[in-house]
Amino acid sequence: MERPPAQSDVLVHLQTGEDRLRAMLMQGLAGDAKAYQAFLKDMSAHLRAFFKRRLTSLPDEIEDLVQETLLALHNQRHTYQSSQPLTAWVHAIARYKLIDLFRARGVREALTDPLDDELQVFAASDTDAFEARRDLGHLMAQLPEHQRLPILHMKLEGLSVIETAAATGMSESAVKVGVHRGLKALAALIGVAR
Prior knowledge:
The protein has 194 residues and is an all-alpha fold. 77% of the residues lie in helices and 0% in strands. The chain folds into 2 domains: 104 residues, Rna Polymerase Sigma Factor, Chain: A (Orthogonal Bundle); 73 residues, Arc Repressor Mutant, subunit A, CATH 1.10.10. The protein has 8 helices and no strands. The N and C termini lie far apart (73 Å).
């Protein structure tokens, strides 16, 4: 009779999965086409599971997102730093693709929404939210990129410091400093705007 895997066995399996994927990617980056093809194949299964958990109401979008993310991974493969966790880098790119999908669907669906009188109840709060987003956009545009990007990724998109560092190419400490100084600069801009 086969025993169920212990929690430590599961952790070892997860760690070896990360290590195996990283090894295949690194071999692929070094010119091993077979290893790179294996990396993309295995990564597609991981991405499919990642998107399936997040798109239960949009299952038809999963395969497109998997392909778009694989293409982005391929195009951005030079940005991967082998000292960093592979999954953090991959998930940051996958989240960008997910956000792009939601933005695109929101724009398309907004253009096709019926204009019903019943929606007038919500018009004031929608207008307020739109004006707040527009105002925030104007304020953020005044920040230098090294402050704007960390705030955008961490505070508005919910990425971690590590994911933001991987996405922007900044060090983790530079990301933290950028958020701190950027929020301070935004507070000053809001004080000036009043």
